[in-house]
């Protein structure tokens, strides 16, 4: 398991979700499908991510847009390769005004009911931020403070990932309107994406507990 899955660390972000007032959440989840207090989705994605061309002059390779930090976008030829080789859900990206090209989003399903030992995450969050996280007063969902994989404890995924090619953690991270899950990809998928867009992504090895 420890060698099968890796994370993709974003070196930069490209493209801004639209509309700005919802950080792009309304087209993806519906007006009532996300918490307007913390930006947390309240149900599965059923609409397309809508991007503006700001900061994204053309579709090339793969990228992670601003604000949506558990989303990976692919230009159409790379998306075709991914669809042929891997079992992933792809949703076409929509564009506000003129599209710079054709792109698709990888929709990562939430897998398992826990990826990390909460006591260990608490210690890591305090070490990095001086605090752990917070429960939204509106939706009641707990978010850990923003953490990257390199700052998190070893993975303790329960139940196991099985044979999925991409998965999102059940734990949420973020602050303010930032809300995101940790993403794991099968190594071969991550290598394909990173090779197609080395300026955007770096493969990061993750650690699993021995048990």
Q: How does this structure look, described?
A:
Helix content is 18%, strand content 26%. The chain has 211 residues and is an alpha+beta fold. The strands form four sheets. The protein has a four-stranded antiparallel β-sheet with strand order 11-12-1-13. β11 and β12 form a beta hairpin. The radius of gyration is 17 Å and the shape is globular. The model has no long low-confidence stretch (mean pLDDT 93).
Average pLDDT number: 93
Order of helices and strands: EEHEEEHEEEHEEEEHE
Radius of gyration, taken over Cα atoms and rounded to an integer in Å: 17 Å
Order of strands across the widest beta sheet? 11-12-1-13
Distance between the termini: 11 Å
Question: What shape does the CA trace take?
Answer: globular
Structural class: alpha+beta
Number of strands: 13
Low-confidence stretches: none
Largest sheet: 4 strands, antiparallel
Structure described in brief:
The chain is of the alpha+beta class. The chain has helices at 25-29, 76-85, 118-129, 187-196; strands at 5-10, 16-17, 50-52, 62-63, 72-75, 89-92, 94-95, 103-107, 133-135, 142-144, 166-173, 180-186, 201-205.
Helix-strand blueprint:
Blueprint lengths: L4 E6 L5 E2 L7 H5 L20 E3 L9 E2 L8 E4 H10 L3 E4 L1 E2 L7 E5 L10 H12 L3 E3 L6 E3 L21 E8 L6 E7 H10 L4 E5 L6
Parallel strand pairs: 3-7
Antiparallel strand pairs: 1-12, 1-13, 2-3, 4-5, 5-8, 6-8, 9-10, 11-12
